[in-house]
Design brief:
Distance between the termini: 52 Å
Number of domains: 1
Helix content: 55-70%
Structural class: mainly alpha
Radius of gyration: 18 Å
Length: 247
Amino acid sequence: MTGRLAPLSMPRLVVLHLLPGGIATLLFVVLAAPIEAAGFPPLAAFLIAIAAGIVPFELAVVASGRQAGAGGGTLAAIPYRRPMSRRDWLILPPVLLVAGVTGFGLLALADGPIRDALFGWLPEWILAPVPLDSVDEYSRSAWIVTLLGYFWLNAVVGPATEELYFRGFLLPRMAQFGRWAPLINVFLFSLYHFWSPWQLLSRVAGVLPFAYAVWWKENVYLGVVVHVALNAISVATVVAIVVGKIG
């Protein structure tokens, strides 16, 4: 299904993988102070960076490449749309979700030491955009708005867009790397999270299983389902903690 796609050069792949993360991180840094001055937690600045940086950039690239893909419609640039059997849909998402949670969970044990050892010099609002130790410094209404945006952007729109872009658009254009393509794709995807570099290893461990499954089945929707579910679990955990603190 992907044979007609011209592979992208390594320099271009690196740029396309990392540039949206650089844009989002820059927006986050620029907006953090004014957003906090307006009475919102730093997380709100990051959510604006997702909405104004990551989502439009990645969707624009996908849309601009639609002539290179198979089929028609708005997802024409994404060749990984091969149908899967009902059996695959019943088995793969839960298995990959468990694999992702396990990978993230086990390697997350190293996140804190890596953050403290290599990135402890960063400002606190980058290290902890959700300030769980100072939740009461922000109003209840500010938290409600922020948490609603957090769920919508970080549990639904953000991961769905990332899958369409990284696994749907970029991965099929990495055929020159053969079986290494998903690993390279996931490593660059993890690097693209410039705002949390200490999570590089845990992110690779959590994303790699479903990235290989998308590559194997040539179905980007599988990645969307698993990525959204993984993020939803993480977001729900944070929301529950914050809601418990604000009462």
